[in-house]
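New to this. Please check this fold:
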Amino acid sequence: MRTSGQAATYWRDVGTLDAYWAANMDLTDIVPQLDLYDRNWPIWTFAEISPPAKFVHDQDGRRGSAISSLVSGGCIVSGATVRQSLLFTDVHLRSFSEVENAVILPDVEVGRGAQLKNVIIDRGVRIPAKLVVGEDPEVDAARFRRTEGGICLITQAMIDKLGK
């Protein structure tokens, strides 16, 4: 945050899963402390060339939408709902899936009808159809790494164990 023409220092410790998740959620604020859209304070970083994000289907109950979220290039939100989340590059959400308070790293596919809340999903994970995370803390802790703050880390190895 800057005042009186001076730039205030922005610093955030992201050394735990809860802190990493919170720092990403901060970016979904209407005017975040670290404003990625502030042209007077540009952030110079690697920019991957990818097609724009795409939102498809416009039927009741099956509408591709994102609210208070950041959606990167290459993402396809196909009849799914995204709320207060960050989707990194090339995330695909299938119809009737819902994600809320989620940080989803690149190349993730979320299966049809999955319901994911308060999660961090690792790169390249394939979430099976109708998987529910964020509704029952005990079930979540038995299947995934669940933090004290209630955030579930989901990796492909954890998903693979569900099928065994």
Notes: The chain has a mean pLDDT of 92. The two ends are 49 Å apart (CA to CA). The longest helix spans residues 17-26. The chain is about 15% helix and 30% strand.
